[in-house]
Amino acid sequence: MDMVTMNILESTMVSICREMGITLMKTSYSTIFNEALDFTCGLANVEGDMIAVADYCPAQIGGMPLLVKSCLKEIDMADLSDGDIILHNDPYRGGLHTPEHTFFKPIFIDGEVIGWAVAIGHLAEVGGMAPGGFCGEATEIFHEGLRIPPVKIKTKGKDNRDIWKLLLANVRTPRTNYGDLRALIAAVDLGEKQMKMVFEKYGKEKVRETVNDLLLYSERRMRAELEAIPDGIYAFKDFIESDGIDEGRIHVIQVEVHKTGGDVVIDYTGSSTQASGPINATLGVSTSAAYNAILHMTDPSIPRNSGCFRPIRIVAPPGTIVNVDFPAPEVGGNTETHPRIVGAILGAMADAVPMRVMAAEGATHCNFVFGGVAADTGEYFACYDLEAVGWGGRAFADGNDAVDSINGNCRITPVEVYETRFPWRIESLAFNQDSGGAGEFRGGVGYSKQMLCLNEKITASQMTDRHELAPWGLNGGEVGGLGATLVQKAGKTGWETMKEAYGKRSSSRYSNVELLKGDRVRLVTPGGGGYGKPADRTKEAVAEDVREGYVSIAAAKKYYRYQEV
User: Whose CA is closest to 172, among 396, 330, 453, 371?
Assistant: First the structure.
């Protein structure tokens, strides 16, 4: 194993993946790409093993190996040509959820396919029954948009015009989708080009040998990390509120972590049967969530590739909320259920590795999606808007304030861009005081965004969580603050939930409500749970929280016995 060459090659490939992402960001049309960065770029060997990836979206990083390998089962390698690009988004073919489109391009060297350039990106509009791709009331996969099996969008470098026609005829925003699809194509084009230069520099056999060594190196380092964790069976259970369809039904995520030596099995046996509404996770999602959780508990310098995933195995019973059967809906599984699975695994491991876990985070991306016809242009617009949450307190530090959920690593859209691109005026954007769970180390706080509708009509839907079941604390920490979505109709002074205002079954998961000019919407994101007993928090930390406005005087007196000076 040539460690010098291996490290140089690994750094080179990761840099290529980052450059692919920058290209995607700078050439895309929609804010979910060029502002939120909801995409991931990677490289795979010919067998579909991920060999390098950039630090973009953890859900897609963990999902890439199964996704690529599943697609390769349907691809006739003999039918591939230099310049082909394959497109896929089917959740029931290894994918994560319908909005996430994967492009992979074969890398040919001397007439032989030696690898793949891969880009996964979340398109803001995919058709289906709700603008923006998140139908909170879907009851089957067909409600969630156009499903695409592995097909060639380009053949020998030329567009497959029939595929393009099909894609753009089934969405509300064909111009924007066209630009985003072109950006994904540009990313894999760049990855292929740069990897060909790597092969030219080092030679085909040397690169293959070094990549195999890299995968083995990552596996060995991951096994060493796992061996340092005490052997045992660690269990935890968490609960998800309404699926948007079966009002009042609570869904269980049951996790057992079986740790033996350098191996770990994540067993989801005991989790609820699949939901009627769209909170189900595909096998790709539950696999990615397990990888995500383990990566958060182990050395971050381990190269991210399929090698480090080899010691991790998954047991996910079919027909459950963690391994949904066709044709049930699943769009919320990747955004909402994934972070809840990660949280359950971290909760299970709290006693084994207390310095490497946290209390529950907000565990939602808010997923407020909307669309309509712009009054000034007459053109249809659609937006997938994600928000941030508070993270859980840890054994050594407070939770992070207002960052994307643990599976996203995305940014929120700046106010100036939001108001320029869409017919809303953002009237306030501020932290939620007291939303971080009290503890020796408090949870991070969420925030509220209040918006005024400026269009004659906007159709909105949402897929969010934590409106009823608060993020849990650890080791005596208090729960974090709940989220909420409230509407104030034009001419009125009171605020109502979507359930109250529109008769929906759920306030957190609903579809196609009509907002009119002058209506206001307030999105409230949850905070994180606290860690440790509040009485153990230092007086200095409490005083600073009060001074900075994170904690009110009333809450400081209630939880921390705070005394005003």
Answer: 371
